[in-house]
Amino acid sequence: MRGITLGALWSLYLLSAYAVAAAPSPESLHSSITTLIVNDLQGTRSPFADSGLIILDARSHADASKSCQALGEELWAPELGISRIRMNLDYLKYTGKYDKWRRFWVKSGHSTARTIDTTGHVSSISEAVELPVLCTHSAPFSNETYQDKNKKWQVQIRSNNDYITGFRDRLSFRFLGIRYATQPKRFAYPVPYTGNNSHMSATQYGSACVQGSSGSEDCHFLNVWTPYLPGPKSGRRSLRPVMFWIHGGGFVSGTGNDKDFDGGNLASRSDVVVVAINYRLGTFGFLALDDGMTNGNFGLADQIAALNWVRSHIGKFGGDPDRITIFGQSAGAASVRALAASPKALGKFAAAIPLSSPGGVGGASRFSKYMTIDEEMKEVGNALLTSTNCTDATSQVNCLRSIPSSDLSAIGAIASFLVVDGTYLVSDELDISKGSRYPFHLMIGTTRDDGAAFIGYPRTTNQSAYLASLGLEVPSPKLFPVPNIANKTLGLFNMTARLATDGQFRCIDQATAYGALFNNRLSSAYYYEFNRTYQLTNYPRLDVCEPPKSTAYPHGDPDGEYFKCHSGELYYLFGNLAREGLPMRDENDLPFQQFIVDSFSSFARTYNPNPDPAYLRARGYSNTLREIERIGKWKPATKRRTTKRVLQWPSFDSLFTELEQCQELRVPLDHYEAKSVSSIFHQGSRKFRYETRDSLGR
Asked: Which of 107, 136, 165 is the last residue of a domain?
């Protein structure tokens, strides 16, 4: 090292450190960083597309300008149009952080430093005064392939002993592919990941978990969308609620990377932090052997490891670890139910939203009634060992570990069952019997025709033959009549969809809510049923799940009669119709989507799906405000009155339905008193599987 002075070495070190950590951060700016936009869920088509702002903490005028430049922006100028940001100013005032007369630095005019207050009044002031800052927010609306390759919009935070670099788009900060656990040994429980001062890129998704011929065993990643990054001096009260998403897919498919569940719109419009996770699937996630050590539930353990990561680290991303709402759909809803039943998870979340949680009878029963390990061995474990020639191995689990993942995932026998392992699940179902109050709030419900996606359209009008092909017996014609319509196969499908929906979704979910209320495990619960849906483009691909098309409604009339199938609420829930490039089928699709996002996120904020009218006014969410004024507040179900909200446009309240049908199916409203399990469904039938490898079943 001759000829190089100590000072030169220090300079080189600083240059090197700056090159690695060039992305701005709350620490480098000495400020929290907030993105704010009037998000009507129309994306680039929105008249408010240019209403975005970035808000920074108080500093001098000179530092304000430099801070905006560090973010690739400039001070916001009143000439851009105060009316564009009026609702943002109203919301800043509503939050209580800024009073009515609070001034913000904006761009100078004629060499004079200017400010704007929360009423929109512009005035001049000394440059030496320290004030919060309004920067422009010009990052583009992202799509599923956009990853800020020119690094203009990148931002960095320090979390879990690492420097994590994400980026922002017009709606939120996006941190993708964050590792929450180390790559596990196959059929071993996850080990939390701890950083070592590395610089980690979080600008693209991590690997999905093995499913069929795709995915990786190194898949313990999660994604975070947030409108707020706290600064060094930010207080706990500034943290936002967290919505923790668990994808469905029958425990055999799916990923938190799915574009349908992009959390940017939900985070932006609702001012919440959204997290979506990967967890191990199929045999890799749920195999249990009767060897005394391979006890299964690895995928459930992954979910809990991700939840633990969120509780420990989400504060650096702007989320409040004490206000976590876990929500999931289909197998994701079954996961929510299992987390509520798990001693490893209970108490780590404040609210739960299981959407279309399967269970009850038939093949769906395995999602709510957990097998013993011996039962799992008889169901799939022994067949799997036979298929791999591992039955007589000295160590069956080591034999299975030696098989390439692609070969193991291709075997027809797939383990995808939650089991009573004695650690993660200690009882065979969620305990809704009498006991202490659950430490969480509940919102639960279904789509009207959830079961229609799983029965297949009949190719015969012979009722007995069709039902037998599904593992069903002919039900009571009085309770499950076949509609007398000209299209006999449609009539048969109609009856069977009702039978499957009641048996596998509606009855068990109504009984769950009622049982928790009746036994005083919860004081109230919010129940819903979607009667307007927008089917996913790739699932279930049934014409009957689409509204009727006509010249007046080329994309279908949502007010017409059609089956409101499984997964039809998800585009609405995440507010992603425009992001997906999908058309609004009528004038009500957009306000309904806004209403759903606002209602479900309100539950995450306040444990009540009725948003504060003052909040709606401040944010300019007039469609939701008018709908609530028109239909009244969503009333919770109680043990005295089992009320649900039928979600359509306009929505309305109703009582729990199909009670006689549920009684017939042996899943009555008092199911968790009677403990009855027999039904007209063949409990052991392999023909009527709830979800298969060929069905995404979100």
From this structure: 136
